[in-house]
Backbone:
């Protein structure tokens, strides 16, 4: 009986014993995904090698002076990236200083039950869509709409604060200040999205605890909810900082691409990314190398910021 | 039937010692009616226990007493909850003020992401405490039977404590604001027997000044600490989506456990439930 | 025990302590400092939210108005005019964007999905898996212009493609470098959402790893994977920085994939900074087309994402 049964199943299920072709397929698929996954590592390495190799010539001739001098002179082959480095740091940090309160405030507004759910979702959707607008379109808008619109305000700023070095020049179109504002528009969705996720992850029990001792809504937000979400928010802010440093198109189109050093935010400036966008296509000789050197510095900056972001999230995160 | 029975109870208590009074309270989460038609008078300066099977709405009723359900979107309440002569659900009532007078300890420990000291001081400070803060912190922690474990790490995070210690920290936090009523939702479910006994002693102490309402699954605990006991149950109703909770019987604890009027209560307290 | 009841002296002393707390009536008092602050902060955060939404509204309005009024058949069929001339269209740039994005997707999607499958299904906690995963995070943070620099150095300057320097192919490769981390990440996260019971169930009926992954796990995660793919493609279609010195630009119709090619994003960049009105207008028109495409892709992705909840 049992042998009879065994016979019939063997006849019905022809693959009781796995054929070696199937094992081969199994192994082959694994190796294929592994090979394709390693492309990430290879590309990253290739980027590093390409940029490093390309910048060796400039490194040899300018050394660390490259970072501290501001001459960018293709005629005499003298290159220093101070203007671009200063511009990169100033635009990204100042834009964050504006975008962080805006983004976190928006995130609170759309997570903390202050308005009806549908309105919240609508605002969330709009901020998400803002992130999808291409940088070059924002640049176009910045040139033709935003910059003319804010110029009176910048002029007022110059009148009031022109005695400080940071507002000492009269605004005449492109400059660091409009670049900072367009960067705010670009990083705002990142900060809002991350802060929103972080706030949503604060457990309801913690909110109940705060309300249970009699806090008001904002009392609970400041004293309990924000502290519980702070590590993720800081991580998100760092990510946004990295993004702002590397942001290219919108900034290039509105910053003025000046090669002269000026402390003033109302003057045209430059960033590493916009310098690359402007000059790389037409450069040759040691200028290419100098640009690669600048690109290397940009990579190091963004890399540091991004790694720091991950570290912050892991280090500061609370267990609740 | 059941509601008329609890109305009877309501009538038998003179109004001067009633602390909180639920009058025909029904609570729904969206379209789902979780508890219906609860009549309940909570006496002043006594411990009242809510018992009943899981999901019958004990926590829901408890949260309704200090408007904690406001935080749950879609949660609505019908009926009246009287406290200090006022309906807590009247539109002019400030829920923040209500929660300052009626404190709460939750089912899950939920210390704030702050130091142990600040966990206590925070609530007291926002309640406008003007006394010696160090003293208040120590007294509250002692009352919650967690001082010995905390006294050397007052400046460490509240998360650095064990689950049971966290819960006692939360009890201390609630005591520290000196509310008139303390609501406790299974406060001892994460505690060892020794800490549980300490908390129960604390409740006896607190009774002199406060009214305590406690949800518990532990029958012995109800017998030990409660003066009054309310037994809730849930039943399926036709047309409803799920079981609806209701108050079966409410009386002196002794009566509930020794001579309950309802068969369901008898079955539940003697462990024959189900 | 005795010490506890000793301390109870302080407990009964709380009658006086209660006066140390503010006690107010239960009614709402709008003039209270805490209630005024509460209202103020709500107002501020509402203002911030308005400010955050404002740019999108303004950009959309301008793109719709400035770009929409130029919409005509000619826009899609003609070449851009020579500087100083009137009229013309952006037909070549539209075709170019499609072509370059397609090249990028054909590279990045298979590699990215396979990479995500490896990370989620095979890597476990192995050191190589962690290297890939870390590398992916780093690559995601690399500025887009750098991938242009990289492809310039690797392909354009070295003229590996039949001696051609700038080409559609080079542009597509540069874009694929940007797409790759997103595709890997969304694939990985989509696969992680697939409950483990499903895998165990498939193994339980004797399915091999290959069959389990390709016929059970990936189909179960198809929605998040395709949502991620759509978003990555939409993002790539709008990228400019990696293209300006890889794909370059061309005033003519695309001529194979090994020649310079026009794309809408580079067209917007080039024409926005030209001092001619015809070119500026075409930049707005291209923005209109690009933004519509990208918004449609995003709404499609949201719709896809809402289809199934694992
Ligand atoms: N936030 C909520 N949203 C929707 N329904 C809820 C919510 N909280 C509770 N419920 C439902 O209301 C009913 C009563 O829940 P409740 O938590 O009050 O029960 P309980 O008696 O406290 O149970 P337990 O003893 O397990 O704590 C249950 O059916 C539950 O599913
Ligand atoms: Mg409960």
Residues:
């Amino acid at each position: 009986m049992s042998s009879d049964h065994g016979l019939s199943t063997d006849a019905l299920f022809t693959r009781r014993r796995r054929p070696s072709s199937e094992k081969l397929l199994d192994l082959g698929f694994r190796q294929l995904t592994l090979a394709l996954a390693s492309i990430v590592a290879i590309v990253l390495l290739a980027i590093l090698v390409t940029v490093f190799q390309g910048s060796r010539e400039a490194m040899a001739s300018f050394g660390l002076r490259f970072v501290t001098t501001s001459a960018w002179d293709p005629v005499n082959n003298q290159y220093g990236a101070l203007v671009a480095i200063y511009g990169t740091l100033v635009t990204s940090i100042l834009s964050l200083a504006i975008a962080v309160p805006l983004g976190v405030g928006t995130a609170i507004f759309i997570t903390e039950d202050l308005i009806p759910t549908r309105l919240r979702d609508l605002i969330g959707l709009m901020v998400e869509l803002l992130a999808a607008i291409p940088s070059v379109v924002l640049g176009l808008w910045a040139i033709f709409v935003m910059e003319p619109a804010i110029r009176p305000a910048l002029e007022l700023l110059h009148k009031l604060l022109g005695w400080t070095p940071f507002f000492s020049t009269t605004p005449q179109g492109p400059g660091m200040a409009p670049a900072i504002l367009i960067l705010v528009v670009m990083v705002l969705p990142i900060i809002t999205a991350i802060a929103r996720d972080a706030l949503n992850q604060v457990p309801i029990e913690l909110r109940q605890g705060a309300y249970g001792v009699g806090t008001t809504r904002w009392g609970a937000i400041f004293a309990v909810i924000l502290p519980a979400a702070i590590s993720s928010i800081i991580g998100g802010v760092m990510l946004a900082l990295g993004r702002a440093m590397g942001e290219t198109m919108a900034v290039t189109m509105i910053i003025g691409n000046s090669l002269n050093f000026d402390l003033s935010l109302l003057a045209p400036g430059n960033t590493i990314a916009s310098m690359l966008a402007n000059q790389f296509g037409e450069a040759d000789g040691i200028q290419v190398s100098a640009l690669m050197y600048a690109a290397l510095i940009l990579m190091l900056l963004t890399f540091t910021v991004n790694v720091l972001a991950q570290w912050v999230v892991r280090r500061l995160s609370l267990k609740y | 039937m059941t509601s008329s029975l609890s109305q009877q109870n309501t009538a038998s208590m003179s109004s001067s010692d009633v602390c909180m009074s639920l009058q025909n309270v029904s609570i729904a989460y969206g379209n789902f009616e979780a508890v219906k038609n609860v009549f309940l008078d909570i006496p002043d300066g006594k411990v009242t226990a809510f018992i009943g099977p899981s999901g019958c709405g004990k926590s829901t009723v408890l949260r309704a007493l200090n408007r904690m359900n406001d935080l749950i979107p879609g949660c609505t309440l019908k009926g009246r909850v009287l406290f200090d002569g006022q309906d807590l659900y009247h539109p002019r009532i400030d829920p923040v003020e209500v929660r300052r007078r009626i404190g709460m300890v939750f089912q899950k420990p939920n210390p704030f992401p702050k130091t142990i000291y600040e966990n206590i001081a925070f609530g007291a400070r926002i309640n406008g405490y003007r006394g010696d803060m160090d003293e208040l912190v120590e007294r509250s922690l002692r009352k919650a039977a967690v001082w010995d474990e905390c006294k050397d790490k007052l400046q460490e995070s509240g998360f650095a404590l064990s689950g049971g210690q966290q819960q006692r920290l939360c009890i201390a936090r609630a005591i520290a604001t000196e509310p008139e009523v303390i609501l406790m939702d299974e406060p001892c479910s994460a505690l060892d027997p020794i800490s549980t006994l300490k908390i129960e002693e604390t409740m006896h102490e607190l009774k002199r000044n406060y009214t305590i309402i406690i949800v518990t699954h532990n029958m012995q605990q109800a017998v030990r600490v409660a003066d009054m006991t309310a037994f809730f149950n849930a039943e399926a109703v036709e047309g409803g989506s799920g079981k609806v909770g209701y108050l079966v019987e409410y009386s002196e604890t002794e009566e509930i456990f020794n001579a309950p009027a309802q068969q369901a209560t008898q079955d539940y307290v003697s462990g024959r439930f189900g | 025990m005795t010490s506890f009841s000793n301390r109870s002296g302080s407990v009964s002393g709380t009658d006086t302590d209660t006066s140390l707390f503010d006690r107010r009536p239960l009614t709402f008092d709008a003039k209270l400092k805490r209630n005024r602050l509460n209202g103020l902060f709500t107002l501020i955060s509402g203002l911030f939210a308005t400010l955050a939404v404002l740019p999108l509204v303004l950009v959309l309005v301008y793109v719709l108005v400035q770009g929409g009024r130029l919409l005509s058949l000619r826009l899609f069929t003609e070449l851009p005019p020579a500087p100083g001339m009137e009229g013309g269209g952006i037909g070549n740039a539209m075709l170019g964007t499609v072509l370059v994005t397609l090249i990028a997707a054909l590279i990045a999607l298979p590699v990215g999905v396979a990479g995500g499958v490896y990370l989620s299904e095979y890597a476990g906690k192995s050191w190589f898996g962690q290297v890939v995963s870390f590398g992916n995070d780093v690559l995601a943070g690399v500025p887009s212009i750098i991938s242009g620099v990289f492809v310039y150095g690797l392909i354009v300057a070295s003229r590996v493609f039949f001696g051609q320097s700038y080409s559609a192919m080079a542009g597509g490769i540069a874009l694929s470098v940007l797409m790759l981390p997103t595709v890997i990440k969304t694939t990985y996260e989509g696969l992680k959402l697939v409950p483990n019971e499903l895998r165990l169930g498939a193994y339980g009926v004797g399915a091999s790893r290959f069959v389990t992954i390709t016929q059970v796990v990936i189909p179960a995660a198809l929605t998040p994977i395709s949502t991620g793919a759509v978003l990555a493609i939409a993002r790539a279609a709008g990228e400019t920085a990696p293209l300006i010195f890889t794909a370059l630009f061309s005033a003519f119709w695309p001529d194979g994939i090994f020649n310079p090619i026009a794309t809408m994003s580079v067209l917007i960049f080039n024409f926005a900074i030209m001092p001619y009105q015809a070119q500026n207008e075409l930049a707005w028109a291209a923005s209109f087309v690009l933004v519509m495409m990208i918004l449609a892709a995003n709404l499609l992705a949201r719709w896809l994402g809402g289809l199934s909840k694992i």
